[in-house]
Amino acid sequence: MPMHTIQIAGSDASFACDANDTVLRAALRQGIAFPYECNVGSCGNCKFEVLAGQAISCWPEAPGLSDKDKQKNRMLGCQTRAQGDLQIKLRTSDKYKPVHSPVRTRATLTASRALTHDLSEFRFECAEPVQFASGQYALVQMEGIAGPRAYSMSNVGGNTTTLDVQVRRVPNGVGSNALFDLPLGSAVEIDGAYGMAYLRQDAPRDILCVGGGSGLAPMVSIARGAFASSALASRQLHFVYGARMPEDVCGQDLLTPLPGFSERGHYQAVISGLDASEALPQGALRGFVHEAVDQLFGDTLAEMEIYFAGPPLMAQSLLKLLIDRKVPMDQVHFDQFY
Ligand SMILES: Cc1cc2nc3c(=O)[nH]c(=O)nc-3n(C[C@H](O)[C@H](O)[C@H](O)COP(=O)(O)OP(=O)(O)OC[C@H]3O[C@@H](n4cnc5c(N)ncnc54)[C@H](O)[C@@H]3O)c2cc1C
Ligand code: FES
């Protein structure tokens, strides 16, 4: 595989990128703090400028890049492959320094089970161990599907060949439907781990995990990591799950068996899609998940370590609430599921 050298202008940093890798992922594999978020072309956080050399985009229509960006020679790190050596303009930032070096490995789908009518858990056995922190995600590339899909692990972080993901079957979604229809024993490529919304083992605060819709997996992983951690043994963990309808509610049965959950764990379901006249299932709250979080925790949010994952609309509403409640942003860790 031809190897190219990418040099970051104005610094002495450079990294090697093979012709089959993207500029972003090659940088992260070598410990370069390249800004990013989604890794799938949607958020635009991985933009950089090409100053010299040739590069191509694997997805020219990716929503993260505007026509104005293209005119200014900007590209998305997560969608760009170098065609030779490159000189690029990029502002690195320490917060993106990878906690573990991402690896690419072959993997086999070995099990799947339904969690709700449209959310299932899938188990992959990887050919090589993948090191990840609870809350991180991996990219799953299926044969015949353009571009990988990002899925968060639901198992506890570690150095492991077994990765569990929990995926919602999206109506008309190309990747999620392909995964639901994939026969057991099929091979995929997995690349990970990625993401900054991982469990902070040294945070001296109670923990709030908020998952909306398909944002269950990383919150379950964080809860599993927190209850397995001696450093967090005195912390309370509040888990709030936002569902649209009663049949979408899930997660509690995955949490209650965790050692310590009955003493320090709290689960709350919130349902947004019922009319005021329709009865709620026992224990559930009515409304949007950010409204319930405000109602339940209010001013005490500023004293919590907060993790959340879910659709961009939910993430933006929650973020606004946390800003209004003056929660220090270094206590807030989230992934938006584009
Ligand atoms: C950080 C992160 C973590 C996520 N974790 C989970 C999770 O744990 N569970 C879950 O159910 N969902 C998760 N998602 C959402 C998931 O990745 C998919 O977006 C979702 O499953 C819908 O995919 P689809 O293929 O069914 O829909 P589609 O509409 O077919 O595809 C949407 C996704 O595919 C990418 N894409 C589409 N076309 C191309 C192309 N030609 N080339 C490259 N990329 C393309 C898009 O950027 C978008 O991410 C996560 C997303 C992100 C960003
Ligand atoms: S990280 Fe590349 S567009 Fe989101």
What layout of secondary structure does this protein have?
Blueprint: E1 3-8, E2 14-18, H1 23-29, E3 47-52, E4 55-57, H2 67-71, E5 74-76, E6 80-82, E7 86-89, E8 103-114, E9 119-132, E10 137-141, E11 149-152, E12 158-168, H3 174-180, E13 187-194, E14 206-212, H4 216-227, E15 237-243, H5 252-255, H6 261-264, E16 265-271, E17 285-286, H7 289-297, E18 304-310, H8 312-324, E19 332-336
Helix pairs in contact: 7-8
Description:
The protein is an alpha/beta fold and 338 residues long. It folds into three domains: 3-96, Roll (Ubiquitin-like (UB roll)), CATH 3.10.20.30; 103-194, Translation factors (Elongation Factor Tu (Ef-tu), domain 3); 206-336, Rossmann fold, CATH 3.40.50.80. It is built from eight helices and 19 strands. The protein has helices at residues 23-29, 67-71, 174-180, 216-227, 252-255, 261-264, 289-297, 312-324; strands at 3-8, 14-18, 47-52, 55-57, 74-76, 80-82, 86-89, 103-114, 119-132, 137-141, 149-152, 158-168, 187-194, 206-212, 237-243, 265-271, 285-286, 304-310, 332-336. A six-stranded antiparallel sheet has the order 11-10-13-8-9-12. α7 (289-297) packs parallel to α8 (312-324). It starts with a strand and ends with a strand. The mean pLDDT is 97. It binds flavin-adenine dinucleotide and FE2/S2 (inorganic) cluster (FES). The site of flavin-adenine dinucleotide (FAD) has 27 residues, from β11, β12 and α3.
